[in-house]
């Protein structure tokens, strides 16, 4: 068996952490569960990351990075309305094919709010910086149009909310979207709702 390098193990931990935190949130996910998913011991996990917060920061950063890359690749060589449509369709595919990306986003926002309230601003600073990069990834192919960028991001957050609540394709809640977006987003909602059935049920593991 080929041994994985520390960097490869670290990458495995980040991928596993996205899945675990997406389901259980920060407070409901133990480092033991992450280690078990990767197939390593907790002591080894803490050789790669100093603590649970560092793992969550890495998972949050990966979630934002993946979304930003999806936008950038979709809009490559396009401008204006074509870029807008391509980015929207690419985002719908992302959350439909990988519901954990949507669930991780939502867990990330909740945890930022709780951290800010507790006076811990590290996660908030990372997420805000990542969001600004997302914003610019959308704004640039739209010719710097702030209004269109705002509308795109606002629609995306509404899609997140409705999909997370599990509104199915064909429901009247999607009538304000184009047929293609409503159908795809509704399918993402059904998949995400089914995959999140155990969210938050892992207890208050603080490992």
What does this entry look like structurally?
- The chain has 207 residues and is mainly α.
- The chain has helices spanning 6-24, 31-38, 42-48, 52-75, 80-97, 99-117, 122-139, 146-164, 179-195.
- α4 packs across α5 (80-97).
- The longest helix has 24 residues, at 52-75.
- It starts with 5 loop residues before the first helix and ends in a 12-residue tail after the last helix.
Beta-strand residue fraction: under 5%
Helix/strand structural class: mainly alpha
Distance between the ends: 30 Å
Q: Kindly report the average pLDDT value.
A: 86
Helix content: over 70%
The gyration radius over C-alpha positions equals: 18 Å
The biggest beta sheet is recorded as: none
Shape descriptor: globular
* Number of helical regions: 9
H/E series, N to C? HHHHHHHHH
Q: Which regions contain 5 or more consecutive residues with pLDDT less than 50?
A: 196-207
**Overall number of strands:** 0
Relevant terms:
207 residues, 9 helices, mainly alpha, disordered C terminus, globular
Give the arrangement of secondary structure elements.
Elements: H1 6-24, H2 31-38, H3 42-48, H4 52-75, H5 80-97, H6 99-117, H7 122-139, H8 146-164, H9 179-195
Short description:
This protein is mainly alpha-helical. It is built from nine helices and no strands.
